[in-house]
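Thread: "does anyone have the structure for this chain?"

Original post by V.I.:
We have the sequence but no experimental structure in hand. Need at least a predicted one for the grant figures.
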Amino acid sequence: MTSRALVLLVLVAGTLAASAPAAAFTHIVKPGETLALIAERIYGEPKREVVLVGANALDVQGGTVIVPGMRLEVPAPGHHTVMQGETWGELSAAWLGTTDIARTELLARVNKGVSWVPPVEGQEIEMPAVVTYITGDAETINAIAGRFWGDPNRGWELNRYNFREGVSVKRGEIVLVPIPGLKLTDAGRTEARAAAERDGASGGMALEHQRKADADLPQLLAAVRYGRYAEAIARGNRLLGGAALTHPQLAMTQRALLEAYVAIDARAAASAACAAWKSSEPNPVLDAVHVSPKIREACDVR
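Reply from O.Q.:
Generated one for you, tokens below.
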């Protein structure tokens, strides 16, 4: 789409220099494996398969069936050794995408601290894994909290983390779900190291960019929702101009760009965004009830 933005490269490089490499890694499905078996081997708990389902948008794609050779993203916590003068806000910005108080407080709480007392120099802290969950039909924020955290009464915390309000969620909305306390087994850590060697440095850069995209996507969608179309187009193209995104991230970015281009009557760009969206989205929905006539026209649907 666009050439890689120099500013984005500098930002990513700076984050990599200050922090440990992104902890998420890729698992290649083997014959006979199920999601529960993979979760038990990597996390020590079969019920953690919900993390793998959410991270790979398997339920959005019409089911949770996996096949040998399939590549799964495996969320995992990161770790960082605190340097002199670092604050929880700075660490939250580097690892969770913003200094917002909700994310800063979560990071401090995960590490048995409080946001107004800086971490101790040399302290080894955990950066919680974050699942990028793409919502389906008839879901609520409380149901998502129940699914990942086991407590539907904590939906308000998910709202606060995602800068959103209300119980209802729209189909295709992105909800970032931090998973504090997610641990890797010895086998999981061994596989993570092997995956890092297999995927090489470029894979690490891609994972870093994908992790940053998880934090940026809600802001992109908010810009579209509130009619800030120029901002949305700039954000969307910055995301596309970096390292490789996951298919769900590509689909969400292109869908947002489609709506923004339609709003400013940029027809050629809207058509290109629609084509790219449909190539990344397994089940693109363009029904007349939920999709505006202008978007359907840009996608050549009558």
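V.I.: this helps a lot. The chain has two domains: 6-201, 205-298.
O.Q.: and The longest strand covers residues 129-134.
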